[in-house]
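User: Last request for today: this protein with 3-hydroxy-3-methylglutaryl-coenzyme A, please.
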Amino acid sequence: GLPKQVTIWEAGPRDGLQNEPGTVPTAVKVELIERLVDAGVSHLETTSFVSPKWVPQMADNAQVMAQIRRRPGIHYQVLVPNMKGFEAAMAAGAEEIGIFTAASESFCRRNTNCSIAESLERLRPVCEAALARGVKVRAFVSCIAGCPFEGEIAPAKVAEVTAALAAMGAYEVALGDTIGVGTPGKVRAAVEACAAQVPLEKIAVHCHDTYGQALANILAALEVGVASIDSSVGGLGGCPYAPGATGNVATDDVVYMLDGLGVETGIDLEKLVQTSWFISDALGRPPASNVARAMKAK
Ligand code: HMG
Ligand code: MG
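Assistant: Here's the final one, the structure of the complex with 3-hydroxy-3-methylglutaryl-coenzyme A:
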């Protein structure tokens, strides 16, 4: 059967906005985060402490962290690629970090300018420093169902990288279908390969919806027993180093599906959809979420 309850990791403020062509004002990012938490989101990717030359959209990371109202019990995770990012995140008061690498060598190089092995070596001291000060570490593996440069990716490679991140101390590893090419059989195979190496409770899925497969892929993962799902309000997002990648699956669509299945998320769909329209209006286009558009039309 399906899990009774799942954790939704809202990626909109980070994955969603990192790829915007224009500058999104810090005040809009902060209001987005506050509205998401008001709607019942308890786990969110708040911003990233990566190089502003690589991702200018996240250059206001410290301001975002300073301006949000940090409410108790909410996981405000920030993405960091190296020690420099970790130190900046700590200075900004982060209590939880996200680290990232890939199951594809070519993508790893494009995204972080190093090999997979080098990225793991770069992340090791980050994990050690985080754990030493009680900072929680979540991890991401990109290209788990295909790579824009290499095509097919073996589930065994995904499992190897996932196991390495868990061994370093990540309490959960999100399997990223970065370019949304996965279909349910592929995502299931990647999850199962990982579950043979690390407990299923440590596995999450992070599906982009480029090919419209994300909800089906998530359902396949839920059926295997995954209970942690990444998504982004209004379907915002994409990775600037993954050509053609569109947004994450819309949180609105995931919550609608889970409500229908009787799986608890703690999120109020009505308020979430209002948030989806808030950020879409700020960006000057309708949400990518079918549910958000349908509910507004009602
Ligand atoms: P590099 O150029 O090899 O790094 O980039 P470096 O260590 O040689 O440093 C170069 C310059 O960047 C130096 O500045 C550093 O100080 C600075 P300079 O001396 O030239 O003035 N620098 C930094 N500045 C601020 N914060 C930092 C930082 N680090 C170095 N943390 C690096 C290597 C990893 C830094 C770079 O490649 C980078 O920032 N990459 C991040 C790319 C990114 O953010 N991608 C999107 C997020 S991942 C994603 O979306 C996928 C995910 O959603 C899952 C999925 O969908 O699959 C998570
Ligand atoms: Mg992503």
